[in-house]
Design brief:
Blueprint lengths: L11 H17 L17 E7 L46 H13 L6 E4 L13 H18 L9 E3 L20 H10 L1 H4 L5 H11 L2 E6 L2 E5 L23 H14 L3 E5 L17 H13 L4 E6 L6 E6 L7 E7 L12 E8 L5 E9 L1 H7 L4 E6 H5 L6 H12 L3 H11 L13 H11 L3 H9 L5
Parallel strand pairs: 1-2, 2-3, 5-6, 6-7, 7-9
Antiparallel strand pairs: 1-10, 4-5, 8-9, 10-11, 11-12
Amino acid sequence: MINNMNRIVISGSIYLLLVIFMIFLLENVQSASPIIKINSGSSSNSGFFWHVTDPHLDSDYSQGSSVECGELICCRKSSPGNSTKAGRFGSYGPCDIPLETFMSALDFIKTYPLEASFVFYGGDNLAHDDWNYNQEYNLNYGLLVANALRSGLSGSKFQNRIIPSMGNHDMAPINLTPLDPSKNAWYLHPVGDAFQFSFNSFPDGPAALNSFKEMGYYTVLLEPGFRAVVINTQFCNPLNFWLLSTTDKDPGQQLAWLNTTLAAAQAANEKVVILGHIPPGISTSSSLEESTGEFNLGMSKIVERYSSILVGQFYGHTHNDHLKVFKDVATSTKPTGVAYVTPAVTQWEEHNPSFRLVQYNKQTFQLENIFTFVANLTKANLDGKITWSMEYDFINGYGLTDLSPASINGLIFNQLNPVKEQWDKFALRFGAGYPKNVCHFDKPCKLKKICAMGNVLYSGYDICIKSNGKQ
């Protein structure tokens, strides 16, 4: 329906049409991607999972519309101007992606010849038309994405092992998540129910579903000895102004819950991967905190305490390809953990659509490698089909021997910071291989990125900036 603000709200009938269209896409999607052989070393001893985040679907995306329309979001039927025309699968500019592009990514993941154990979905379902957000609009996108994931991955061995998290764009208004759990039930309850098919596949799924529906955070046992912990990063989002309504340094008691959960995992001899939406630490561009200072400190203490069981952390939100290294709280010199930030499926504003495959050892559960897949929209729009290709993998792409915190810290300060050739690789990969707005080696943006990746706490970041990127 169209309300008095002349904006479109996805009503029940329009939502049904979108689901029907989604089914049509499943039958007609043209991803036509070549199979990419992964040299996984001891492949018989390796497990895998996928990380897909930030699709930002736009039901109003329109092929042939204006890409440079002068408004906050373009590539829509209503977009003014006669500039570059929007392509079928997406266009580089202030535009999000059509459902077809997301379904193509899921089709590639489903048919990829590896037996992944689960898919982590990182949130942010809908387009960047933030002023249009309301509970009905956002919820229908949440249900649309849940159904897209279920349908798009149907037939795979991990079709019922989709692990969702909540993004800041999923809330209405954007970023705002009240601390009273009952006030978030409009989203968490129906979306949780939409993923019940997946929760039910895990032995502790019913309890996890109840926790998701109440607090947005939960834990599931992936397999004996390997646990996933999903946090609700709205409790550490600096733009969630509901956090100003409390003096509690642990909103939602999430850090307390995380500490208890990890203590139980440690006692059970389990390894743990942490999943979420907004990464911890400092922004790689603005020098502002990506997550609140209280959370960064509390999380740093927890990561240091449980470093022996934490194999890694995975986030989205920034749309870029980068990482964050946790260090000991006392000296900020000893690496204790790594948070990997996966680039987005949406191309907003100028990135190649992307997602990741993570490889781990099935006996130790330690991470072995991370593979990033991308699509070139210019080529896709010309060819009439999307070709997903591997951009790079961490081990070979950076010449690493392992993904330990010490190795990743060394990558930042011993390779990316002083070696132009290595930095240039990273800078291009930051935007998933799209060559515009690249941060060059001799520019101030490089120092901000180095220090933000090498420090989660602002104290360490400040020292890094003042020492020109030295540890």
